[in-house]
From TrEMBL:
GO MF terms held by the record: metal ion binding
Protein origin, superkingdom: Eukaryota
BP-aspect Gene Ontology terms: positive regulation of cellular senescence
Species lineage: Eukaryota, Metazoa, Chordata, Craniata, Vertebrata
UniProt keyword Metal-binding, yes or no: yes
The Yippee domain, residue ranges: 31-128
Protein name: Protein yippee-like
Keyword set, alphabetical order: Metal-binding, Zinc
Similarity annotation: Belongs to the yippee family.
Amino acid sequence: APRVGPLPPAPAMVRISKPKTFQAYLDDCHRRYSCAHCRAHLANHDDLISKSFQGSQGRAYLFNSVVNVGCGPAEERVLLTGLHAVADIHCENCKTTLGWKYEQAFESSQKYKEGKYIIELNHMIKDNGWD
């Protein structure tokens, strides 16, 4: 039987760290909304479209754009304003479900919501410069 000598030293382990998903930081000179659970930035006040929305757990705001948010698969749901295709959104940092994204509105009066985001008030806080 062949004789096996001592094993060569193992190469130093290279640790590949996953980049932090809390990657988008909104400008400090703007009023902004952050995740109530982990403080990840979510949206600038300038991107707020409406405060008169209803989420599944209470009041919600409609935003034109958001950051640090991941999107689930779209599904059709009957909401207060009719049938919509929506995708749940979550904070990329702490994975908390925040609200949803309107992918498609089936009624012409609701088309303005397409591509916009609902974030429920109980999942966000006002951050930076609200005084």
